Amino acid sequence: MRGGGTYRGAGRERALLIQGLDMDGAKVGAARTYLQAQKLCGQVSVDVFDLPSLPFADNLINLVLMEEAGKFIRSGLALQEVRRVLSPNARFW
């Protein structure tokens, strides 16, 4: 897992908060260990989640990056659930 820091774009700087999610508690534990070693806790966090819902309010997220999308979709995550949490003009990759 990589992430955190600041984003510099359009002549301004803004902080990023990154939330990683996985259904596998062992993967989440390994990611947390990595984040602690890299001193990224606070900027980046990781949690276990249960399908079919994402643990975010409507229109909250600016960017969703989904690794292993097929695994999550086969396990019950609907693309309309991803769209629910995306804010206007947000991106899904």
Structure in words:
The protein is α/β, with parallel strands linked by helices and 93 residues long. The chain has 2 domains: 1-49, no CATH class; 51-93, no CATH class. It is built from 3 helices and 6 strands. Helix 1 (25-37) links the parallel strand 3 (18-22) and strand 4 (44-48).
Topology, please?
Elements: E1 6-9, E2 12-15, E3 18-22, H1 25-37, E4 44-48, E5 61-64, H2 69-74, H3 79-85, E6 86-92
Parallel strand pairs: 3-4, 5-6
Antiparallel strand pairs: 1-2
Give a quick summary of the entry.
The chain is α/β, with parallel strands linked by helices and 93 residues long. It has three helices and six strands, in the order βββαββααβ.
Question: Which short descriptors sum up this protein?
Answer:
93 residues, globular, alpha/beta, single chain, two-stranded antiparallel sheet, two-stranded parallel ribbon, disordered N terminus
Q: What is the overall silhouette?
A: globular
How many DSSP-defined strands?
Answer: 6
Strand portion, in percent? 25-35%
Structural class: alpha/beta
Please trace the helix and strand order, writing H or E for each element: EEEHEEHHE
- Helical amount: 25-40%
Q: Give the termini distance in whole angstroms.
A: 16 Å
- Distinct helical segment count: 3
Rg, Cα atoms, Å: 14 Å
The average pLDDT score comes to 85
**Strand neighbour order, sheet with most strands:** 1-2
Which regions are unreliable across 5 or more consecutive residues at pLDDT < 50? Answer: 1-11
Q: What can be said about the biggest beta sheet?
A: 2 strands, antiparallel
